[in-house]
Design a protein that fits this description.
single chain, 324 residues, mainly beta, four-stranded antiparallel beta sheet, globular
């Protein structure tokens, strides 16, 4: 399989896609490619897709340019990838969430090959990594839509991890964590499709709900694709609009805006730094034809890569959140 020497990211996946947009069915989407997926630790993103039917991951490492298939679970349970660096060694860990039980399974690259298991969350929860204490590693966490609450881990004064609960959001929101204020810690961010408003609870306010920042950007059925697109250390508020295949940028540093048309009507949007310059490229995965499309908007270069994988694979660098 011919593929580029660079690509991937993070994801938690629900195996479905953009179908049947009607007012009586509310479907909310988000990409969590902000966390990246660098399985080999070379600071370049590695591209990956997940087959939820077989619990198999298909991916390519940038360090050796080889294509891999890895089976993770033999049972019939469905797992959702939630890839991030959970041990702080600079490599993305293969991590999964079982939505029916709330079980997390972490294959830490710093470990001895035996997966670490824990239970955080339950049915209806969305697994979202966070780094609210500003260390080098992400912690497991969940956002509970029906309660509008975040259940996270934080470092106590004694140095251990303790639970932290923060309420922000509504059941239909797209939720993620990203460093919007540039202090090295995750901020809690939700985007509300009903009115197109982003609600940001910042770490610099000690996650004070009363100091939440509200920013208008986007409209219903947009897909959020947040990332640091200008390399200033702050997560920018970005959306992709299926109807016109346009990316809408709102930069965290000054609130300036930009638009870029890229992608196909059936694509799943994501992003990631594929050339190592510190600026994420725009990436889409077309599950119908099993093809990646990559736009380096700095260099104005466009690439496409065909993959020979099962037809039901979904991009393992995006998050799809569904509420009906």
């Amino acid at each position: 399989m011919k593929i580029p020497a660079i690509l991937s990211m993070l994801l938690f996946v629900i195996p479905m896609w953009l179908t049947d947009f009607t007012k009586d069915k509310l479907v909310v989407f988000a990409s969590l490619s902000y966390y990246s997926c660098d399985f080999d630790g070379d600071k370049l993103t590695d591209l990956a897709v997940w087959d939820s039917n077989s619990n198999k991951l298909y991916f390519q490492l940038t360090s050796d340019r080889k294509f891999y298939e890895k089976q993770f679970f033999d049972n019939n349970l469905s797992y959702q990838p939630v890839f991030a660096d959970y041990d702080g060694d600079g490599k993305t860990d293969f991590t999964f969430f079982q939505p029916d039980s709330g079980e997390w399974v972490l294959y830490l690259t710093s470990g001895v090959g035996v997966p670490k298991k824990m239970f955080v969350g339950s049915i209806g929860d969305l697994p979202i990594p966070s780094n609210i204490d500003g260390d080098k590693s992400y912690d497991v966490g969940i956002w509970r839509p029906n309660a509008g609450g975040w259940y996270l881990s934080n470092i106590s004064e004694a140095g251990g991890k303790v639970p932290k609960i923060i309420y922000e959001g509504s059941y239909q929101d797209s939720a993620f964590t990203g460093d919007y204020d540039g202090d090295g810690k995750s901020d809690l961010i939700v985007w509300r499709p009903d009115d197109g408003v982003w609600h940001i609870v910042k770490s610099t306010t000690s996650f004070n709900f009363n100091q939440t920042e509200h920013i208008q950007h986007g409209k219903e059925w947009d897909i959020i694709v947040p990332n640091d697109y200008d390399g200033d250390g702050k997560c920018d508020l970005v959306l992709w609009r299926k109807s016109n295949q346009t990316w809408y940028f709102k930069y965290a540093k000054d609130g300036s805006q930009n638009e870029i048309k890229f992608g196909g009507v059936n694509d799943i949007p994501a992003s990631g730094d594929i050339d190592g310059d510190g600026i994420p490229e725009l990436i889409t995965w077309d599950p119908g034809v099993k093809k990646w499309n990559v736009l380096n908007f700095k260099k104005q270069e466009l690439f496409s890569y065909q993959w020979n994988v099962p037809g039901n694979c979904v991009s393992a660098i995006s998050v799809l959140q569904r509420n009906e």
